[in-house]
Design brief:
Largest sheet: 12 strands, antiparallel
Shape: globular
Strand order of the largest sheet: 6-5-4-3-2-1-12-11-10-9-8-7
Helix content: 10-25%
Number of domains: 1
CATH architecture: Beta Barrel
Number of helices: 1
């Protein structure tokens, strides 16, 4: 009798596990959605900027490996495209690893993700290890530039250069990247046009 009871218990346990195993899946809309990447990741994407003169850049190459997306950006010098920067995009954010075609000694985090209001991180500015500061993310908020209106993350940059505190504000929009930058002296860089790659 004990043996039969034990076998019956095992059967019920197995049946129970089976029922759990075939339970309806949780609706996908209940899962948290991944945050959009605030950087262009399609080859051919072209951005035009203006800060008193025109400045054009494009995504020249995209390499995906081990969960990372490496984006190579070129800039237009007259009629010739020249090496610009290389940015690695992941679930952790965007980090610049090359500038002007050269590897940087201190990779610069442009934006940390997932975004949270007040999220802050330390930075070393490209090839100047003695120049250090912080970036703090806010928003998102609506920002309007000649290229259109964007819901963008505002990043406040504070750093010290030659003993003097410097400030700068940047705005990053999903799938577009930086759409505006304003320095402490009032200098402004705005996105004039944006053409997605295919």
């Amino acid at each position: 009798m004990r043996t039969a009871g034990f076998v019956t218990a095992l059967a019920y346990a197995a049946f129970g596990v089976g029922v759990i195993g075939i339970a309806a899946p949780v609706p996908t809309h209940l899962f948290p959605k991944p945050q959009p990447v605030c950087f262009p990741t399609k080859v051919g994407t072209t951005s035009e900027w203006a800060n008193g003169r025109w400045y054009t850049e494009r995504v020249a190459a995209v390499e995906r490996k081990d969960g990372l997306t490496h984006v190579t950006v070129e800039w237009l010098d007259g009629a010739k495209w020249r090496p610009g920067r290389r940015v690695t995009v992941s679930a952790e954010g965007m980090v610049m690893t090359e500038a002007a075609g050269r590897e940087v000694k201190h990779p610069l985090w442009l934006l940390k993700q997932p975004h949270r209001e007040g999220n802050a991180w330390e930075i070393n500015l490209v090839e100047h290890p003695d120049v250090k500061g912080t970036k703090t993310a806010h928003g998102p908020e609506r920002v309007e530039v000649p290229a259109g209106r964007f819901d963008a993350v505002r990043v406040e940059v504070r750093y010290t250069l030659f003993g003097k505190e410097q400030r700068m504000t940047e705005w990053y929009a999903p799938d577009v990247g930086r759409v505006k930058m304003v320095d402490a002296g009032g200098g402004t860089l705005e996105l004039k046009s944006f053409t997605p790659g295919k």
